[in-house]
Amino acid sequence: MNILSFQKQVIAYAKSIGIDKIGFTTATPFVDLKQQLIRQQELSFQSGFEESDLELRTNPELLLEEAQSIIAIALAYPSKMENAPQGKKGARRGIFCRASWGVDYHTALRERLALLEQFIVENYPNARTKSMVDTGELSDRAVAERAGIGWSGKNTNIITPEFGSYVYLGEIITNIAFAPDEPMEDQCGECRLCLDVCPTGALVQGGQLNSQRCIAFLTQTKGDLPDEFRSHLGNRIYGCDTCQTVCPKNKRKHNLIHEEFFPDPEIAKPLLEPLLMISNKDFKQVYGHVSGSWRGKKPLQRNTIYALAHFKEVSAIPLLQEVLEKDQRPVIKGAAAWAIGKINAEQSKEILLKALQQESDPNVIIEIQKGLTLIES
């Protein structure tokens, strides 16, 4: 079979199943990426969610025997929410990042990758494939960059001319030697808006991210949030879009293409207090289909408490007091104690002093003391 002719068939089929961009690159090792990753490890800039074996992350031939090519795909997701509800005093709302609007992108991409793999295997003799998205060994962004999907922006996101950086990425390694596409020229120029506005300074320099300071990462951690980041969280429940929303290349890129990614406003911008009290069963039923639920409800509820503190929502004090007194999770109790102090309502000091007498967990006691310090400062 003529490979170039088949490559055109693959591209046409990809478009027919709702893949917005497709590109091809070789399966040769990602040499430059390996050096970057070594440096990231040395600086402790990685999140810990990545594949730890750098050989697997940078050498496709270790993942598929006789690998020849990698097919990169991209699906565009919305940046605009229709009829977004507005929070108000007594009914404050949080926000999930755009990558967690609609159905979990892992599911959507895996379905399309599976269809594309099936098409390839059924139509090309002796074809073999291995697909992955996000949690796979390879770097989705490095593959997409080399395959010409877009360029790697200073905010470390792949930026496409058509959809900006609002794209989900996935790839297929195959033993078919497809013709590689040319990488795209960097179009960020002298712009450094994303670096200048990053709330925590997580963008160290163009193309380099300290994940340990990135709000998108911090919202997914399960322990106590370090003090210096709590005020930067704002009302973010999951993820952070700041370095994308300020990017000039994302201007007017709304990407209302795939209905499965359209947000349910009540889920994407949920009321904070109901989210704090939601049961495990209801959480799975309401939020289980979105990517932001992958770490469970605990991190989201911790972030919800910090968001109530951000708003200084006095009406939430009785609820926070109930959490402090009755919740069995030290991280959640501690967050509530800190928030009660941060809000600094008339009854805050009395609540915290009472809790201090009754609490036995040392970490919660520390948070109660922090709350009292906030009141006195």
Q: What does this protein structure show overall?
A:
With 377 residues, the chain is of the alpha+beta class. Among the domains are: 3-77 and 99-174, no CATH class; 314-377, Leucine-rich Repeat Variant (Alpha Horseshoe), CATH 1.25.10. It has 17 helices and 10 strands. The strands form 4 sheets. It has a 4-stranded antiparallel β-sheet with strand order 1-2-7-4, sandwiched between helices. Strands 3-10 form a two-stranded parallel ribbon. Strand 8 (203-205) and strand 9 (208-209) form a beta hairpin. Helix 1 (3-16) packs antiparallel against helix 4 (105-123).
Search tags:
17 helices; 377 residues; 41% helix; alpha+beta; Leucine-rich Repeat Variant; elongated; 10 strands
Short précis:
This protein has 377 residues and is of the alpha+beta class. Among the domains are: 3-77 and 99-174, no CATH class; 314-377, Leucine-rich Repeat Variant (Alpha Horseshoe).
